[in-house]
Design brief:
This protein has 295 residues and is mostly helical. The chain contains nine helices and eight strands. The chain has two domains: 104 residues, no CATH class; 150 residues, no CATH class. A hairpin with a 2-residue loop joins strand 3 and strand 4. Keywords: Signal.
């Protein structure tokens, strides 16, 4: 970490338990590597110290997703894919300094307390103060939660976008009449930002981004899927209107199910991209049933 912060041995190796004289305080690792700074910190190889590959080496992992073998190493070599496209929500906390922490040691806060280099020189170089004494907690690792698909303790699948309908669709849930399956993107723990490049709204998508993970030409398949789902949604809307005009006691359940599926797909807004197989089956189910009622 030359030309960045000057650390002491005790910055990383601390006396934190009675069992060992010195041991590595991993909280310090997380604070230095993942804190947001206006000036990036670099390792000796000139890479940012937040670079995943500094700690995480080659991963020989395969996963069967609906009969297709996912190989991690293929995506490691793909320069168009970032680790965060699949591994997300891995940092909790911001590691910032709350000035109230200063009062643990000081009666008054110095005027130069906003000058980070001075603070580090005094506290780390001269006084060997532990990073965690001043910085708020910051941890690195996947959040564990109950997987609604498998029921197992599993890394949390969704980024905190507030787009709950989209998450439900990707899990193969939310509709009626069809038992769905999770989309391969969900099983691969894909992050929203892997496809949606507009980081602010997670709304716009350029179909060519599909080719980053899929075979070349998959973007054209996506466009065809969107056209197909859009056409089927129009048909479902027309059939719903006809069924409501001919409504009788025996068609209430069919109409209700069709409305649930129609509203779910419309609110999802992906026109099938989030789980094409599940959305296609929901549309087929509702359209077939409605056609029976409007004969």
């Amino acid at each position: 970490m030359s030309n960045n912060l000057k650390l002491k041995c005790t910055s990383c190796h601390a006396h934190i338990s009675t069992e060992k004289h010195f041991e590595t305080d991993t909280r310090t690792c997380d604070t230095c590597h993942f804190i947001n700074t206006t000036k990036p910190l670099y390792a000796q190889n000139k890479k940012p110290i937040s670079d995943c590959a500094l700690c995480h080496g080659h991963v020989e992992k395969t996963k069967d997703i609906y009969g297709k073998i996912f190989q991690h190493e293929i995506y490691e070599k793909n320069e168009k894919i970032d680790c965060s496209d699949c591994h997300f929500d891995t940092i909790q906390g911001d590691g910032q300094v709350d000035k109230r922490s200063c009062y643990q040691c000081h009666a008054e806060i110095a005027d130069y307390s906003d000058k980070v280099p001075d603070m580090h020189t005094i506290h780390i170089e001269k006084r060997k103060v532990a990073c965690t004494s001043c910085h708020d907690p910051l941890t690195h690792g996947w959040i564990k939660s109950a997987n609604p698909v498998s029921g197992d303790d599993h890394p949390q699948q969704s980024v905190a976008t507030g787009h709950k309908v989209q998450e439900v669709i990707m899990m193969g849930m939310g509709g009626v009449g069809i038992k769905g399956e999770p989309d391969p993107m969900y099983l691969a723990t894909l992050n929203c930002s892997a496809c949606h490049q507009d980081k602010q709204r997670f709304a716009l998508i350029e179909p060519k981004v599909c080719n980053n993970c899929h075979e070349k030409g998959f973007d054209k398949i996506l466009v065809e899927q969107i056209r197909f789902v859009t056409s089927r949604m129009r048909l479902l809307q027309r059939l719903l209107a006809q069924a409501k005009r001919r409504h009788n006691g025996g068609t209430s359940q069919v109409i209700h199910e069709a409305e649930v599926n129609y509203n779910l797909i419309r609110e999802d807004g992906s026109s099938g991209a989030h789980n094409i197989k599940y959305i296609k089956y929901l549309l087929d189910y509702s359209i077939t049933n409605l056609k029976q009622t409007v004969k």
